[in-house]
Structures are given as structure tokens and as C-alpha cells.
Amino acid sequence: MGDVTTAVNLPVPSVPRVRKDPSEIRQPAGEKKVLLAAPRGYCAGVDRAVIAVERALEHYGAPIYVRKEIVHNRHVVDTLAERGAIFVDETSEVPEGARVVFSAHGVSPQVHAEAAERSLDTIDATCPLVTKVHREAIRFARDGYSILLVGHAGHEEVEGTMGEAPDHITLIQNPEEARTLDIPESDKMVWISQTTLSVDETMETVNILKERFPQLIAPPSDDICYATQNRQVAVKKIAPDADLVIVVGSANSSNSVRLVEVALEHGAKAAYRVDFAREVDEEWFNDVATVGVTSGASVPETLVEDVIKLLAEYGYGEVDEVRTAEEDLMFSLPRELRKDLKAAGQKTSNKRDGADRQHEIV
Ligand code: SF4
């Protein structure tokens, strides 16, 4: 299988690099091709959050404040900033009475309270699948459970979920912590998780927890969302045949970083994450016949197309899409925005022109 390598954080070249001529790359023995994983890219929660900011800018006019990155993608954030969105880290940075959008990752009740204190008009673009986990945390805490949240410290989603019941939730980041962490035992224990984790690693963590606490129960349904799971299944399918996997996604995108790990765990000889095609290092192509390509749930397809174009320049012109699931889920725009759009006689649908998804869920 050869050495496994990864580079999760690549510096963005500050000046355009002179690319190597394709003739300088060591050619593989086999035919060159691309396996393009599907599903990839935008999920329903990201699509809704980005459209919410776009529609807010159109309807109310700039500036529109956005707390944290609306979704974890540099290109999306930069594009919205150019159109008049102002990204802030904290609600306290938003002028009193202004309009602020909460990101897809969700916020804690404390953030809602701060916004109310400052008389902010809020548009809550929290993904409904994150809200589902918040509701679970509230319900289990109310019913007296000790809640073990599997997730990563510092991630905005985890901060938001923990804020719903801080006295009842213990964060478990990985199997090692599941083994060693001093967790208060209780008769009633439940695990829940961040929505964008590796399915396999989460189950490993949970199995260790179950050995320690046989009374531990599972959440009523999967917390790792459909989009995260589908993108991992697709990359697992292409990884065994890939000499190299390129994951398009940002360094702070949990599900994108997981895709690099999953590709390596399932047989890719090398896997790298890039924000943009310009970060692809042509040295990676030495002796490479098959390149797998995928993208995280916050990545617009145009960034994948750029990578495919670059690959074609290096002889990887044949592209086979490998699809493991169909997705047609769509979430309605945030309630506050729909109300204002409706009052102004504007369309409230979340459907982009030409979108082929059918199921809009309110
Ligand atoms: S990755 Fe999943 S939880 Fe996160 S925004 Fe997308 S659908 Fe929602």
C-alpha cells in the first residue's frame, strides 16, 4: 500500500506559483483517471444558511452581521463579505439594534440572551439537524440524565450544544478520552454527538464508553447527520482504488478534515485537503494513476470543478463519478426571514433557480 501521508494544513501561496510542466512528473504504469465521489459538497443545512445570508442582503440591504463563519468555508465567507456581510466573533461586536445571522453550527442560549439584551434582530440559520441535537440535550438534562457528548472541544457546534445544559454534559473527544476521562457515574447516562464526526471513530468511542458504563443509552436517532455519513461512505468507496485523494474543504471544516482521515483509513495511499485548486502540489502526482476527489459539506461545486480542471492539465482527463447515495433534502429558510419576505410579497422558497431537490422541510 506504500507510505500513507497527509497534510491537513497547507499554506496558501501568497504569489501565484509557477507550476511544474506535466512532462516533469513521473508517470504511472497504469492509465490516469479521476474517481469523483458523490455525494460531495453542499448539504441542505449549508445551502440554507448561505441562501439565508444572500436573501437577507438582498432584502434588508448591507451590512448584515454574521456571528462566526456562516459555514466553514473560506471561499463562501469571502464571497459573502464582498457582498456586504460583516463577520464577527461575538454578538457584542454587533451594533445595538442591528441585524445578525447566527451560523449553521448553532449557538447557546447565552448567545440568544446577549442578542436580546442588545436589541438585535436575529436570523437563526442553525441547521435543523444541529437543533435536533440541542433539543435532545435539553430533554435528557430535564429527565436527569448525565450526557456524554462525543465531539471536539472548541468547535462552535459543541459550544452551542454544551451551552444548552452545561451542568449535565461531559465532552468526550476521542477513544483515548473515553478510556481515561474521569466521568461522573450516574444511573441514567446517554451519549449524543457532534453532527460532523467520523462515524467509525465515534462508534469506537461509544463502545469504550459502553464497556465502562453498561447503563449508557443511545440517542433516539443518529446525531452524525446524513450529509456527513453519505460523504464518508462515498470516499470509502473510492479510497481503495486511489493512489491519491484530494479533499476540497477548509481546515476548520470538521467534516472535510474527517474525509481526509477516512480516505487514509480505507486504503488511499495519500490524501490531502485543499481550500483551492491553487494549493494542489503537482509533486503529489508522481507515479499516481488514480486520483480520488471529494469535498466537504460546506464546499461549493465550483471549487471542485477548479481541481478537476487542474487535474485534466496533468493528464487526468477521464473522470468517473462514483455515486453511493442520492440526496434531495432541502430545509426551509429561517422563520424570521421567511416572515419578513412573505410580508414584503417576496418568494420564501429556499430553492435556487435550477435546483433539482424536491423535499423542502419546514
Ligand atoms: S453537515 Fe449536517 S448538520 Fe452540518 S449543516 Fe450540513 S446537514 Fe446540517
Automatic annotation (TrEMBL):
Function (record text): Catalyzes the conversion of 1-hydroxy-2-methyl-2-(E)-butenyl 4-diphosphate (HMBPP) into a mixture of isopentenyl diphosphate (IPP) and dimethylallyl diphosphate (DMAPP). Acts in the terminal step of the DOXP/MEP pathway for isoprenoid precursor biosynthesis.
Record-linked PANTHER family: 4-HYDROXY-3-METHYLBUT-2-ENYL DIPHOSPHATE REDUCTASE (PTHR30426:SF0)
Region (Disordered), start-end ranges: 342-362
GO MF entry, a single one: 4-hydroxy-3-methylbut-2-enyl diphosphate reductase activity
Record's keyword terms, sorted: 4Fe-4S, Iron, Iron-sulfur, Isoprene biosynthesis, Metal-binding, Oxidoreductase
Compositionally biased spans, kind Basic and acidic residues: 350-362
Similarity comment: family membership: Belongs to the IspH family.
Cofactor note: Binds 1 [4Fe-4S] cluster per subunit.
Residues reported in the UniProt entry to bind (2E)-4-hydroxy-3-methylbut-2-enyl diphosphate: H72, H105, H155, T195, S253, S254, N255, S298
Residues given in the record as dimethylallyl diphosphate binding sites: H72, H105, H155, S253, S254, N255, S298
Active site positions, chain numbering: E157 (proton donor)
Protein EC: 1.17.7.4
Residues annotated as binding isopentenyl diphosphate: H72, H105, H155, S253, S254, N255, S298
Residues the entry annotates as binding [4Fe-4S] cluster: C43, C127, C225
InterPro entries assigned: LytB/IspH
An individual GO BP term: isopentenyl diphosphate biosynthetic process, methylerythritol 4-phosphate pathway
Pathway involvement of the protein, from the record: Isoprenoid biosynthesis; dimethylallyl diphosphate biosynthesis; dimethylallyl diphosphate from (2E)-4-hydroxy-3-methylbutenyl diphosphate: step 1/1; Isoprenoid biosynthesis; isopentenyl diphosphate biosynthesis via DXP pathway; isopentenyl diphosphate from 1-deoxy-D-xylulose 5-phosphate: step 6/6
Catalytic activity: dimethylallyl diphosphate + 2 oxidized [2Fe-2S]-[ferredoxin] + H2O = (2E)-4-hydroxy-3-methylbut-2-enyl diphosphate + 2 reduced [2Fe-2S]-[ferredoxin] + 2 H(+); isopentenyl diphosphate + 2 oxidized [2Fe-2S]-[ferredoxin] + H2O = (2E)-4-hydroxy-3-methylbut-2-enyl diphosphate + 2 reduced [2Fe-2S]-[ferredoxin] + 2 H(+)
Cofactor field: [4Fe-4S] cluster
Name of the protein: 4-hydroxy-3-methylbut-2-enyl diphosphate reductase
Transmembrane segments: none
Originating species: Brevibacterium luteolum
